[in-house]
Q: What sequence folds into this?
């Protein structure tokens, strides 16, 4: 089974998406499963993991509703407020839906170091740690020290770094991102998504080799069992089509990869991380 482990759907009239404005016309419209179906078929991708794009439980419920209609959705990485007193209650209610397979911490626009030391946040993350429930971490590169602190406090958290931690590829910045990536890999439960790179590169003048160091370093440090492909569609459309996004990753993957390695990157690792084996009767 081939899986796109990171993409989004949204409907503007839901009014969840304050970050979507007419000033970004490429993204300022509805994006639904039928819009992506042809691209998925072209690349032999049978399932996708839909990730929240709004900080509301209502949007998570909307995405879970789509799973009942569209077979292409493997599951939803939703949103919860880690500081709410009813966090566990809300989580347990959502978890009754088999398609609720993960939750995302949106740290990119806040003081992550301060937030990730709040007692209620850590308490709820430790609770998820005990359950082994998957957690996506959305950060920018300068927030890796906060992630390292989090993993010291919650060392067995079943977590994945979205978008390789958003390195500044357009400026070809290597350090300290390189060192931080190496350091976080000491936590064996941590995975990394090979996603989001086209929008971190030079959007107006894309050069495929600009991504080479970043992909190679993530694979070298995490290994081929802890990385997974994600398109970040439709956000990727700011820089590249779905076809180009898939092509960019293929171009920058090590040339010696076997079919088994490719199956891992494009599906098996996502199945394992998001615990989809039973849901889809998959053996990996």
A:
């Amino acid at each position: 089974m081939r899986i796109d482990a990171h993409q989004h759907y949204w409907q503007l009239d839901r009014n969840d998406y304050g970050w979507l404005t007419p000033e970004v016309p490429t993204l300022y419209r509805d994006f639904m499963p039928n819009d992506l179906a042809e691209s998925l078929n072209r690349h032999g991708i049978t399932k996708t993991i839909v990730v929240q794009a709004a900080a509301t439980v209502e949007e998570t419920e909307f995405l879970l509703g789509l799973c009942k209609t569209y077979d292409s959705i493997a599951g939803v990485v939703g949103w919860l407020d880690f500081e709410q007193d009813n966090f566990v209650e809300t989580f347990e209610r959502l978890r009754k839906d088999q398609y609720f397979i993960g939750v995302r911490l949106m740290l990119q626009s806040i003081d992550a170091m301060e937030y990730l030391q709040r007692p209620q946040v850590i308490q709820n993350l430790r609770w998820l740690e005990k359950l082994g429930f998957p957690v996506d971490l959305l950060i920018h590169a300068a927030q890796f020290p906060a992630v390292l602190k989090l993993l010291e406090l919650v060392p067995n958290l079943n977590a994945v770094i979205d978008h390789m931690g958003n390195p500044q590829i357009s400026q070809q910045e290597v350090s300290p991102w390189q060192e931080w990536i190496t350091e976080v890999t000491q936590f064996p439960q941590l995975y990394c998504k090979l996603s989001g790179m086209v929008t971190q590169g030079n959007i107006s003048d894309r050069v495929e080799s600009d991504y080479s160091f970043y992909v190679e370093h993530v694979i070298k440090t995490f290994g081929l069992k802890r990385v997974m492909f994600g398109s970040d569609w439709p956000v990727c459309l700011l820089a590249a089509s779905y076809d180009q996004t898939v092509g960019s990753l293929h171009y920058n993957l090590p040339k010696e990869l076997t079919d088994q390695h490719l199956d891992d990157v494009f599906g098996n690792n996502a199945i394992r991380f998001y615990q989809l084996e039973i849901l889809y009767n998959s053996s990996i």
